[in-house]
Amino acid sequence: MAPRSRVGGDRLRRAAGPGVVILAVSAGLALLEASGQAFWQGLAINLAIFMMLTLALNLTSGFTGVFSLGQIGFMALGAYGSAILTLSLQNKAAYLPDLPGWLAGIHLDQEASGIPTGFLIATIVAALAVAAVAWVVGRVLMRLSGHFVAVATLGFLVIVRVVLFNADTFTRGSRTFTNVAPYTNLWWAWLWLLAVIYVVWRLKRSAYGREMFVQRDDRLAAQAIGIRVMDPRLLAFVIGAFFSSVAGSLYAHFITSFSPSVFYFDLTFRVITMLVIGGMGSVSGSIVGAILIVGLTEALRRVEDATLLYGLSQIVLAVIFIVVITVRREGLLGQREIPLDRLFARRSTTAAAPDQSR
Amino acid sequence: MTDYAIQQVVNALSAGSLYALMAVGLAMVFGILRLINFAHGDLMMIAAYVAVFCLGAGLPLLVSLPIIVGATVVVGLLMERVAYRPIRGSPDVAVLLSSFAVGQILQNGTLLTTRLAGMPQLVAFPSPDLLNGVVTIGAFTVPKVNVASFVAGIVLLGLLSLFVTRSTLGLSMRAAAEDISAARLVGININRVVATAFAIGSALAAVAGLLYSVQAGQVNPYMGFTPVLKAFIAAVIGGFGSIAGAVLGGYVLGILEVLVTSLAGIGDLLPPGSVSPEVRSFLQEWLPSGLASWRDAIVFVVLILVLLVRPQGILGRRSQAHE
Which of A30, A67, A156, B79 could potentially form a cystine with B93 if both were Cys, beta carbons 3.0 to 4.6 Å apart? Predict the structure, then answer.
């Protein structure tokens, strides 16, 4: 066999595993959509949003070791950003009458042959703006380390909350922001999720990703081989903020009415739990962690509703969190991955290409 | 106007005392273990609920106080033994995150317990008569509880400073904060020292929780979150890990907060004719009354600035914040 065709064959084989999974999930989603089960559809959208948040936090914190507690702040900005951008002119005049002129004229509520293109543009515009904010914030905060960066980013979360509560020209302040168009459906959520998984996965295997891991594991060694510690951290922070913002937009157009108090510490802690349980640094770990915690939360919520013991679910989650930190700190998967790309690989080719399997 | 200024000074000192009482507990534990115990604020909340039960049952303050402090110390010690001792030596962030988990357990545990006891989520605080009302000193009046906070802060922090400078246990605690392995080498029982730090921190948090609840007039399971953030800021401003720094930072933060709230809208408050119209409109523009609601954001901006410019704080010595 000629070497060239063999390489091509390997590529195909490596792509086959993820491809099959994507097809299977798509088929599952199509079935779910056809079934019309609103509850399960909502749960699937919720799951996709949480997976995105966990993956984004994994990139920001798991890959780099710089623990950010401010992620939900970026999510909040994304939610409000796209909600404001997509509001129709009529609703803008009614709900946010004092918007400045340049913003009051924008209404990304267009649809092209049934697809809300305005929503896509609004999500991306909001996420770019949030990424710009993250770049400025990150330039300042990524210089800190350890728990100092955790607390400084927690400060960012508090600042975002205060801003959202006080900037009532834009956000209606503490009043609920309503009439957000319900654009988010199964396909929007899961296609964005696919994009996030792809980018985070590729980043992990790229030179940038390796820089992130190296400066996390041994900062001095990283500096000695010429890695500027700041650059990979900032890159991870900005991309993480972009995806958190996208998750926020999807959430906003899924839940359709919300207030600043949603985006606070409970949500932050829930995403952290998913990340830590799955394994910091593992892409598949984030997915597994999110599935486990979303499922568990849903089950516990039913127990709470049945027994009226509200607060039980948070206690159980917190106990699980402490047990994991105590007994198995690296989480379920640690830094390893579920090797989907080797699902259909031949034994000999995987052995011949050890550098491809980390 | 002078009355207003004096009242604000008393407010600043009283808020500062509460922050200092809380910050000292954080700083003692951090100094020894490098653990930021975010569940410290929930100890305050526990104290407030115990106080609701004791004072609500009609017990006098002097009988309730030992029960409140005792119960909080027990919870603080339990927390250390169950949640923090097993993971001692783990990376900073892992420990920080489990302190959040401990906080969640305490908050939701309280929520569950009080709900089972048939209480609403927000409970009016049965303030003891001793702390109700105002005192009139000369021409101005201040709430009694503010004076009590200030006095309690000075007395307790004074006692603490005696303890850490004069007693063997206090000296061991400072030695452990200086260098934990060297302290172990000279035969200091680290577990005992850590437990002492938690016990003292919990006791101070209990007093702070009682006074805070009287000021707030109500308690709820999540009331500890904002105070612990503030105490943390205070500890960072003063120099994290240093007890004196935490006290200083507490008062600096109290003064800063009262400055923000009392200067907000000052342009409208000044009596007519006392300042020129230009000054007044300048003040109205730059210190609008709406500024007060931005207080928490301003305080956190200060925190981030301190972390960047002088991460060792006012009294700290070496920088551990930067990498």
Answer: A67
B259: its two tokens: 């400055």
Distance (Å, whole) CA A111 – CA A118: 7
User: What secondary structure does DSSP assign to B139-162, as a single string?
Assistant: TEEEEHHHHHHHHHHHHHHHHHHH
- Reduced to 3 states (helix: H, G, I; strand: E, B; else coil), residue B275 is coil
Length of chain A: 358
CA Rg value for chain A: 21
Which residues 6+ apart lie within 8 Å of A267 measured at CB? A72, A75
pLDDT of chain B, 323 residues: tens digit per residue: 677 788 888 888 988 999 999 999 888 888 888 888 889 999 999 999 999 999 988 888 889 999 999 999 999 999 999 888 888 877 777 888 889 999 999 999 999 998 888 888 888 888 887 888 888 777 777 888 888 888 898 999 999 989 988 998 889 888 888 888 888 898 888 889 999 999 999 999 999 999 999 988 889 999 998 899 889 888 888 887 788 888 999 999 999 888 888 887 777 777 777 778 888 888 777 777 777 788 888 888 888 888 888 777 777 665 444 43
Q: Is B247 on the interface with A (CB under 8 A)?
A: no
A307 touches chain B (CB under 8 A): no
Question: Searching chain A, which residue's CA lies closest to the CA of residue B37?
Answer: A147
* Alpha-carbon dihedral angle through residues B39, B41, B46, B51, given to the nearest 10 degrees: 170
- Tell me the C-alpha distance between B113 and A273, whole Å: 24
The alpha carbon dihedral of A100, A102, A105, A111 has a sign of negative
Burial level of A256, CB count in 10 A (0-12/13-18/19+)?
middle
Contact yes or no for B232/B23 (Cβ under 8 A): yes
- Global pTM? 0.88
- Residues of chain A in contact with residue B311, where contact means CB-CB under 8 angstroms, are 144, 148
Please report the beta strands in B80-149, taking only residues with DSSP state E, as ranges in sequence order.
Answer: 123-124, 134-137, 140-143
Residues 6 or more apart whose CB falls under 8 angstroms from that of A9 comprise: none
List CB contacts (< 8 A) between A166 and chain B. 290, 293-294
Tell me if A147 and B93 make a contact (CB, 8 A cut-off).
yes
Are A271 and A69 in contact, with CB atoms under 8 Å apart?
Answer: no
- Per-residue DSSP letter, B271: P
- In this structure, how many other beta carbons lie within 10 angstroms of the beta carbon of residue A77? 25
The neighbour count for residue A131, using CB atoms within 10 Å, is 21
Q: What DSSP letter does each residue of A6-34 carry, written as one string?
A: HHHHHHHHHHHHHHHHHHHHHHHHHHHHH
B60 touches chain A (CB under 8 A): no
The reply to whether A323 touches chain B by the CB within 8 Å rule is no
Chain A positions in Cβ-Cβ contact with residue B236 (cut-off 8 Å) = 151
What residues of A are in contact with residue B321 (Cβ under 8 Å)? 144-146, 148
